[in-house]
Amino acid sequence: MASEAEANEAEGAGESSGLHQPHDKLFTAAFGVPENAAGFLRAQLPSRLANAIDWESLCPQPGSFVDSTFRRSHTDLLFSASIDGRETLLYLLFEHQSACDPRLPLRLLRYLVRIWEDCARKLPDRTKLPPILPVVLSQNAEVWEVPDSLGAMLDLPPDLAGDLTPFLPDFTYRHLQLAETDYASLPGTRAGIFVLRTMKAERRGELLGEVVWEEDLILGIPRELYQMVLRYILAAEIDRDAFENRLNQLRDPELRTDAMTLAQVYRQEGRQKSRQEDILDALELRFGQVSEEIREMIRSQGGEARLRELFRAAIQCTSLEEFRGAL
Length: 327
Hints:
The chain is α/β, with parallel strands linked by helices. It folds into 2 domains: 22-152 and 166-225, no CATH class; 265-326. The chain has helices at residues 22-31, 34-44, 47-52, 104-122, 161-164, 190-204, 215-218, 223-235, 240-248, 253-287, 292-299, 304-316, 320-326; strands at 53-61, 74-83, 86-95, 132-138, 174-177. A 5-stranded mixed sheet has the order 1-2-3-4-5. It is globular.
């Protein structure tokens, strides 16, 4: 398998973006790597513009510009690159919410303004701002009907549209919707394509399909990313027997061993989590609300024998304080 690639997680502009979802983590692990981001972004831009960008100069920039209310369903990555010696910014927004947002261009405008404001704050003596090329990736199950520009959202009287347009902001953006893109047409590097296929398959209930488990593709990606995708698949609602059968079909022994080992670890983690929840349920039934401190202490415990011991303590103790002493 390919050597490890470093993924750069976006940090908040003044605060952490917080990767709450497995979708976010997988997206960032894949496309936080400049090589993978370049392979994807290049395919989204007009050829003349894509050819003008010095892709070797593509560099991740710190900052998340997404509204706090969307942090659980959106992740963003910002990159800088050079065009003819001038700085250009490329903004990649990943959306994995279930519903279409017809005001997407308006939201994008807010994010672009925040990026420019961040540029102005960091370089107060700079009088000109770098251009921003916005690209959206949507992990959707059905094709969304959304405007492809800010201007398309504006309700202008037809006879005055030409007079009003010079006074109004407008921009277009590139939008790749996984729902309307064939598996074979997904662009980018091997790692990027593998992740995009997995994300598309997750929405279509096809995580165990041949297109995700193409061994020639998997063998060309970092081992760490392969293991992350396995965890992503195991966290989804899949038939566990069918998953085991899929693993047995893998020809490469390293791929098969990695998958089976991780599946076993995941089962153990699932049993451990179930035991922890049983302990909490017993305490809540006996004593009512359990403090967050005790919850965290229980979640930090592991091992079958230790968790059985704590479950018995939860049943036999006479108070939460007595149970806390057993932790």
